[in-house]
TrEMBL record:
It comes from the Eukaryota. InterPro entries: UDP_glucos_trans (IPR002213), UDP_glycos_trans_CS (IPR035595). This is Glycosyltransferase. It comes from Oryza sativa subsp. japonica. The lineage of its organism: Eukaryota, Viridiplantae, Streptophyta, Embryophyta, Tracheophyta. CDD domains: GT1_Gtf-like. Its EC number is 2.4.1.-.
Amino acid sequence: MDMVAATPAAHVLMFPCPVHGHITCMLHFATGLLAAGLHVTFLHSDHNLRRAAAASSPRLRYVSIPDGLPVEHPRDVGRIVELMESLKTKASVAYRSLLASLLLGDATGGFPPVTCVVADGIMSFAVDVAEELGIPALAFRTDSACSFLAYLSLPRLLELGELPFKDGDDLDEPVRGVPGMESFLRRRDLPSQCRDCSDPDNDPLLQIVYGFTAHSGNARALVLNTAASMERAALAHIAPHMRDVFAIGPLHAMSPTAPAAGGSLWREDDGCLAWLDGQADGSVVYVSLGSLTVISLEQFTEFLHGLVAAGYPFLWVLRPDMVGASQSAALREAVAAAGKSKARVVEWAPQRGVLRHRAVGCFLTHAGWNSTLEAAVEGVPMVCWPFFTDQQINSRFVGGVWRTGLDMKDVCDAAVVARMVREAMESGQIRASAQALAREVRRDVADGGSSTAEFKRLVEFIVELST
Ligand code: UDP
């Protein structure tokens, strides 16, 4: 990313929701802002700052506040609503005092006063508190534009009677309530929160999701980690609802150097790269369901048998907390026994390096947005098994719009896993689409590309807000 002239007084406080995918994505964003000459204060929760290794840069510093939950409280996916609630009611108080103190600047550390906040768009309070203190705030979403548009369309989906789902509704029925997606979006492709709601007026989750999505219209701008070549139509439909929209992704490809090195909250097992070195080109199936997905023992067994039946070597990320309460050692043994020498298991992989590796032929993924972008940039065909939230709609784009892979949603069956993995590995058409999309996305992030131009416009916007 080119350096642009920026006033040294522009100082951005970045406040991600304290979960892995949001933090790493915002660290890439921070890396871009640093390269553009801005100062960045990166706000972690105390809980995560203890886990994340901190990198140093003269214009970057880390600060933290309590997330409001007791130290031992689980912060896994099943308790995410409690975390969000605690951030809003408790962490927001500490955030307000921190911002007030940062407004005064820090002459000794060479940091000017904070002039702008980039807050995670799923934490509306972070935008409101900043604006109340007179600091302009932008909302940054780490999920896809297509899912943002689906959330924004919730009132229309309700008005058309397409939500809530009723017993016996055909999940393959098309929905018309999300603009621009009428020709391919089915009920089952709507974000998972839509599926779980039986009474939208009393469904707190749906109201929360709609609330923070629509609230981004109050921020000075909405910033999305996406590229025009992937989501042009969705971006055009979102724009009229926001004060401004910047599509600046995929950020990991805009700022490829490790941002603040300590992005990962897990220790990466680099040994798998050496294992990949010993495999033939395009021969390995990489399997990862991200940082939050949990599966049952039955689902684990279906995946395992499907992967073995597909017949290719596979590299599988099995987080210790991923399969219910099972012993991860026993699961690793099960994989080793079934996969013989063809299987490699790690608790956490250097995913971008893995996807870039010549030996990887396809990616069995939950279609989290970061993973989807990472596969898109590397041109790797995907088999998607979406778990929750935006993953349901992301996987529809993979299977039905970009056609860079196959969508296995709602099915977890060894025979289907085997069939889809084989097809993703062998289909020339899917590989060609994946490579064509990669070329387009790489153009977006190259000099003169749309994401690069948008990033420059965003830096100018922040500098202007800061003066
Ligand atoms: N990731 C990784 N190693 C792993 C699994 C995942 O580095 O073994 C990274 C991956 O590269 C991506 C992020 O974790 O950047 C997962 O984000 P995503 O949005 O795909 O899913 P989430 O974890 O939010 O469900």
